[in-house]
Amino acid sequence: EHEAEQPQFSNVPQSKQGSVPLEAAMSQPLPMEELFSAPAAQYQLPILGEVPSGEPPDPKKCSPREYLEFYIFPVLLPGLAALLHEAEKEKCFEGKRTKFIPSDFLTEWLYNKNPKRKDESFTELFSIPFVKDWLKDHPRPPIPLSLLISEEEASILIQSFWRGYRVRCDSEIQELRQWQKKLREERHINEVVKKFWTKQEAK
Questions:
Q1: pTM
Q2: Which residue has the higher pLDDT, 50 or 89?
């Protein structure tokens, strides 16, 4: 009789039941309520930009959670939402390369939305004091031109260069360019122009 009985697998871990077939273990639901004993509301973030009700606690004596809920989340979460909207406007989700720098936007946004600066005028990123001090010791490389211009502007530049290249390949244009080069060398046109502007500046 005992041999005929089949073990009934429940949500008890395998270590307490002995060897459990893989198919049987996968078919059983996980005991989520037991894994997460704390209520679900404890892990929910506050509503965007909402400050918890009640008197704000002393920032130097309150718990880390109270500090986050009263002083960090009400400013940070709207900043992250604005960051996502700006990233979508800059088409960051459509391509791998973009001139948009999320950390720059968020730094500027948080600095200007600081409650302590609510009566002050808007300050651009590179005019923020600590940003200026940082960039003095850590200068940034220039942004590539390919990220600063639109696709339409880039196509115009490429087409203009190609048309100029095709014109310069013409035999008559090549002859004209050689004549101009020889003329510049013989008459020292560069020195003449330099002396002319020197005289103009002296006046």
A1: 0.51
A2: 89
Rounded Cα gap, residues 184 and 131, in angstroms? 49
Domain check: are 137 and 72 in the same one?
A: yes
Of 81, 74, 80, the residue nearest 56 (C-alpha): 74
**Mean pLDDT lowest for which of 19-33, 54-68, 182-196?**
19-33
**Residue 91 corresponds to which tokens in the numbers above?**
């088409």
Q: Mean pLDDT over all residues of the chain? A: 77
Highest mean pLDDT among 3-17, 34-48, 119-133, 175-189: 119-133
Query: Domain residues for 185?
Result: 153-196
Q: How many domains does the chain have?
A: 2
Same structural domain, 119 and 70: yes
Nearest residue to 135 (alpha-carbon basis) of 126, 144, 122: 126
Continuous H helices in the chain = 14-17, 22-27, 32-35, 64-67, 73-89, 102-112, 129-137, 145-148, 151-168, 171-187, 189-202
Domain for residue 10, yes or no?
A: no
Residue 52 included in any domain:
no
169 domain residue, yes or no = yes
Residues 136 and 157 in one domain: no
Out of 3-7, 115-119, 129-133, 181-185, give the one with best mean pLDDT. Answer: 129-133
